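Bench notes, afternoon.
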Amino acid sequence: MCAMPASGCLGIKTCPQGACSSISTAVGTGSGSLSALSVSAGKSAPHAMSEFYSYTRPWKCIYVGGILSSGCGGALLSVYQAGCLVSTPALSAGECYCACIGYSISVYAGNGGSVAAYINCNSVNIFCRLTTTNCTGSVSFPIKNTDTFQIGICANTPSCACAGCAGGDMYINTITSISGNECYGGGCTGVHTFTG
């Protein structure tokens, strides 16, 4: 993403100075209407091309926040934590991005423990990695402005005497804009849980 020039040629769709001088490219809507572009950029009437000198589209930061649940219970010592991906400010209609979610799981050999890393989209499980051994990995998913996207991790060990025998971490690896202007940033970087 490049900032518009502070002076010189600007074009609604194209300009001899290149993409960084295209108002349509800077705003990211593809519109050919100066009024529509100005409104999309949050500018007030009367509209003028000069409003776009030095313009840079504001970023929407995606982060893990809003811890949804955390607890311990059941026959095994079970510790779980879940968070949701949050956009600040909120995504607008039609915006979407691709999130690459990483996970790192640790289970000490011979303790009988297990860890599950999972991802839910709109309350439907779309990824689950259940393991009794150490592992790492990542998985990528597109997310629309209407989606509720949750990541979580659950660690189980045979007894409270085995504190710290199983655990894990889930985090945002990367955020890639598809339609909009999103980036990773701010807030909590991931959800973590360790038994004990």
